[in-house]
């Protein structure tokens, strides 16, 4: 293990070329900010150490590193242990070199605790004997503070905001590539394949890839792809992940002239979405935004549709760090990311946004996409229309 970590020249070459690394070059200040926030949480919670096992928390604390092998497993192949004075990576000999060299952890001065893959050793107990331990999952003799950690994750640093911008552009470009390839007669599986390929080609993963065609758009809010063939109308839903961050975007396409009833529903969700984006400002809470949405659902003629699907919430290292409800009291702060997704049967509007000092930035905007201009107070907010293809 010492030989693997000592080869700094090779690591720097790989890191600078960025061809082998999934973790972006991070600043010392960003990493130190993460450690400071974690240690402040420890003090507030009366704890001495925090164990992070979930892949999203691993990515957050390491400024973008990947601890997963099996993408379907929320627990990674490495854990992080942070105390008031030390920070450790706990893993096996299979993963240590990759984490140190390609994921950038050697550059963050983590102390590696490496066990052969075939041995069972309780490293956590050895390192935390006599300590009060917190964790991001259920663990005997540890306090589960996963909800507190999720709140910390949603408070993005400026560096994370920059990565979110890059991810937003990546997801928008991937969506455009997929849309350009969609043709009537394709199965939903084939359309999902187009979207997945476009995302993977850019070094990210489509962790949510939902496709609905024709009547399935009205029938199901979470439409897993099927063998059904597209006739005229299709909805593509993407949650794309890179560096642990997740961007959400939805687009709808109609081949031929759009029926007026579908157009009316598309107009409604655009207006609801615009009102929600306008309300997503510091000084408001998630509940405030939700109440604005409820009122707009009624104004547009669909007063009960909000009950049939959640409306979105804050984003970050999960598609929704906190999902808004009528009772939500969490304040909105500058630098947070959000993804609202109002829907009525047959239509939906969704982009990822970043809360700026003066205004909100739409991260997944697709510049050549037809738009609906919605006036909210003194501002115009552009929302995606349903694309008509002939």
Q: Fill in the CATH topology of the largest domain.
A: Creatine Amidinohydrolase
What is the CATH architecture descriptor of the largest domain? Answer: Alpha-Beta Complex
Question: What structural category do the secondary elements indicate?
Answer: alpha+beta
| Multimeric state | single chain
Specify the biggest β-sheet. Answer: 6 strands, mixed
Overall domain count: 2
The pLDDT mean sits at 93
Can you characterise this structure?
This protein has 390 residues and is α+β, with helices and mostly antiparallel strands. It folds into two domains: 2-153, 3-Layer(aba) Sandwich (Creatine Amidinohydrolase, Chain A, domain 1), CATH 3.40.350.10; 158-389, Alpha-Beta Complex (Creatine Amidinohydrolase), CATH 3.90.230. It has twelve helices and 19 strands. Strands 4-3-2-1-5-6 form a six-stranded mixed β-sheet. The radius of gyration is 22 Å and the shape is globular. The termini are far apart.
Give a brief description:
By secondary structure, the protein is an alpha+beta fold. Helix content is 35%, strand content 25%. The protein folds into two domains: 2-153, 3-Layer(aba) Sandwich (Creatine Amidinohydrolase, Chain A, domain 1); 158-389, Creatine Amidinohydrolase.
Topology:
Elements: H1 2-6, H2 8-17, H3 28-45, E1 49-54, H4 55-61, E2 75-83, E3 87-92, H5 96-101, E4 111-115, H6 123-128, E5 133-135, E6 142-144, H7 146-153, H8 158-181, H9 188-200, E7 205-213, H10 216-219, E8 233-242, E9 245-255, H11 260-279, H12 286-299, E10 312-315, E11 322-323, E12 337-340, E13 343-344, E14 347-348, E15 351-355, E16 360-362, E17 371-376, E18 379-384, E19 387-389
Parallel strand pairs: 1-5, 3-4, 5-6, 9-19
Antiparallel strand pairs: 1-2, 2-3, 7-8, 8-9, 10-11, 10-12, 12-15, 13-14, 15-16, 17-18
Helix pairs in contact: 8-9, 11-12
